[in-house]
Design a protein that fits this description.
alpha+beta; 5-stranded antiparallel β-sheet
Length: 161
């Protein structure tokens, strides 16, 4: 089974022309010259780096890491259902869909309190949000906290624009 076939139930279309805008606040975290490859239903982005390694922007954890040496290595990881749960949050996606929380076009799931700020990995902590708001909102937060030491205190105040 191909990578895209295996991940399709947990992904969104990655072909979009607004990646530079979506990732503007993340530019200090992600490598240069990457190619968006797979977008999960939780708005996490896998990308191909110029050296063929596969990286993952975990918006919900405010971090980027290389997760595979290449697409073949990535495919091998997908045979591990724990990786499907970790990378694609497959069990949570299934639970949300069973409860009727179905994404509309150009929406993704996003955590109300991101995992990187102590949010819980459960259905009650999930909202449906336009993809551009997901990357923009949490990108702004990332930009404000990126230089904070681990364990620092963060207070979120959401204001109307």
């Amino acid at each position: 089974m191909s990578i895209l076939a295996k991940t399709k139930p947990y992904t969104l279309p990655v072909e979009r022309g607004d990646w530079p805008q979506l990732l503007a606040d993340w530019r200090t975290l992600v490598p240069n010259n990457f190619t968006p490859w797979i977008l999960t239903r939780f708005g996490e982005l896998f990308m191909r780096q110029p050296d063929e390694r596969i990286g993952m922007l975990q918006v919900s954890n405010f971090r980027y890491s290389v997760v595979a040496e290449n697409a073949t290595d990535f495919a091998e990881w997908l045979s591990d259902k724990d990786k499907m749960a970790e990378w694609f949050l497959a069990p949570l996606v299934r639970q949300l869909e069973r409860s009727g929380r179905i994404l509309a076009a150009d929406q993704c799931y996003s955590f109300i309190t991101p995992l990187g700020l102590g949010g819980e990995l459960n259905e009650k902590n999930v909202m449906l949000i336009p993809i551009h708001e997901h990357f923009g909102l949490w990108g702004e937060v990332y930009d404000q906290i990126k230089d904070m030491p681990d364990g620092g205190t963060v207070v979120l105040r959401i204001k109307d624009r």
